[in-house]
Amino acid sequence: MSGGERNPRDHRGAAPERGVDGQCTTHRPVPSARASRVCSRASFRRLRNHLRALTLIYRRDGMPLYFRYYDPRVLRIFLPTCSTEQLKQMFGPVDAFLAESEAGDALGIYRLSGDELSSVQRKLGGG
Fold first, then answer.
1. Domain count, the chain
2. Residue 39 domain-assigned?
3. Is 10 within the bounds of a domain?
4. Which of 41, 20, 19 has its CA nearest to residue 95?
5. pLDDT by residue (tens digit) across 18-67?
6. Coil/strand/helix, residue 121
7. Model's pTM, two decimal places?
8. Long-range contacts from 109-116, C-beta under 8 angstroms, 24+ separation
9. CA-to-CA distance for 84 and 17, rounded, in angstroms?
10. Burial class (CB in 10 A: 0-12, 13-18, 19+), 19
């Protein structure tokens, strides 16, 4: 790293990795954990900044907590419980969140359609 550039693997969470098409980002917080993906038409820098802002949340009493949005186990449970305002904050420039199913045989695709969360499950594997 040079100058004032911050290490993307600092205390604020998993590091984003640029996808092949430049639009999807994978987070791998733990080598053995399954990863979630995000798809966005936003610039990599804008997407990275948005996702980094999601990693630190605060309880009502002001205590800071790390929010593991990049963990598919968390994402699958959290998104369906969000209010409209929370969904807008969570998605920001993200077009879709993708999370593997618990069994790892399907991919959940979560999108914000207007003010509503839409989700579709797609089977993984060939045949």
1. 1
2. yes
3. no
4. 41
5. 554 445 554 444 334 467 899 999 999 999 999 999 999 999 999 999 99
6. strand
7. 0.70
8. 110/75, 110/79, 112/87, 112/88, 115/84, 115/87, 115/88, 116/84
9. 28
10. middle
Within a domain: 11? no
Q: What is the pLDDT of residues 61-83, one digit of tens each?
A: 999 999 998 899 999 999 999 99
Beta-carbon count within 10 A of 68 CB = 20
Amino acid at 70: Y
Which among 103, 96, 51 is positioned nearest to 73, based on CA atoms? 103
Range of the domain at 30: 16-123
Please report the pLDDT score of residue 24 as a whole number: 52
Q: Is residue 96 over pLDDT 70? A: yes
Q: Which residues pair with 110 in a beta bridge?
A: 97, 119
Type of residue found at 108: G
Tokens of 78: 């959290």
> Is 4 domain-assigned?
no
Provide DSSP, 58-87: E-TTS-EEE--TTSHHHHHHHGGG--HHHH
CB of 97 within 8 A of CB of 110? yes
